[in-house]
Amino acid sequence: MSDTASIYVHLDWHIGHYVKILMDEVFGEDNFRNEIIYGYRIQGISKRNFPKKHDTLFYYSLNDDYVFKPEKEIVKYEKPFIDTKKIDANLSKLTDKDILTIKDCIEKQVALPDKFKAILFDSHFAEVYVRDVWDHDATKPIISGATEYLQYATQKSEGLLSRIIKASSNENMIVADFFGGSGVTAKVAHDLVRRFIHCDVGIHSIQTVRDRLKEAGASFQILEIQDGVSLFSNPQQTMDKLATLIPSLQRGVEGIVVFWFGSIVDSKLGTMPVCVPNLLNSQEKVLDMPQMNQILNQELPDLEDVKKVIVYYIDIDDEKELKKFIHDNNNTNIEVELQDLKDLLHDVVIEDSVNVKCNAIDSGFEVEILELFSDRLMQKIETFNQKSSTKTPIVISDDGLELIELVALDCENDSGAWHSSTAIKIDKLGFMVKDGVKSKIFWDGKIYVDKQPKRLKVRNISGDETVKNL
After folding, report:
1. b/e sequence 236-258, b meaning 16+ C-beta within 10 Å
2. Are residues 124 and 169 in the same domain?
3. Each residue of 166-190: pLDDT tens digit?
4. What is the largest CA-CA distance in the chain?
């Protein structure tokens, strides 16, 4: 976060109060700016408690030097109060439509129509800063049937995010949402001339946001942040793959006990044992002092004629402190080198497996996708199903075609730059969008082209693309 940054956190009533305590520890109680109540008046019935019809937002700044530009609004009061400005007593004759017009002009910072210039306030109306209780009228909540609703369960309204972004940022500042969901934050940030970062691990989020930003005319890049340790849903498969990715690694070297994953033989340093965390044991995923103490005092003394060992880690407790611990407690002459396993595997991509058939027909060529298997997606789906035990689990068909978002053919190049001769995009309801033209036709797994196709591109619903020569 920059020095001028703010953070707004929303979690539901089950956990929000616990996070408030953590936020106080991270940012300091003095930097807690507001507890904002966002209420909505949609119908609710409960015989055991008051219907829950509000959200709570915790608003913090990093320090005292933060951007804050609250909105103003016109408020109508039944009775005058002490700080109400009085200009024209006829203001009480304004209709509700007139009030909305005035609010809209203030929000857009444009001049009022002439008929309102002389009657901005009277004893029943006031221009005030927005308070910490936000009504649904001002922030336009998501309700069933709203045009901006994308059938995304946790979707927030554009009006709500607009108020937050305008209050706490200036144009061209960066607005980040690390649990971005349907992309409301990114879309509104773009509309308000802000830069944006959208992050999410959800299966449908990236697809939803990509379409939403494209429709809004936003310029953006999609980047996949790999953790480098979940190449396969089966951890043993990943461990086996690691043995082939560590340069010059040899398994089963004589004299090297099973504690070590293998060894690298160097012409100058000789045999260098390699330690890799066991992905089947979650306790080994963080390299900490006790693990390093075991390496220094139990494993290194048993090594003979070894000058150096390499210790890979997934996460590390405190690298600076750990290196100091090694320096102070290594009673051997063996050098200990630490390496991040994620750096080794960062560029490793396990592509989806695509089974395809291409046939010549009278009008050209028919390409049929027979099967798609995505280990990465299946792992995400499995994780979702485990966390959502009370909900209906996601079930994937044997051919996996519902995991496909886009199919494209290249009839010009068999390598190098991709030339899209034709493309079919499948929306969330299964309807085809062929070469940008929407339809109400369900995709049947086939795509047609006039010329002999040279390459096929398949993109799954997480945005992973696989290119296959035909």
Report:
1. eebbeebeeebeebeeeeeebee
2. no
3. 999 999 999 999 999 889 999 999 9
4. 97
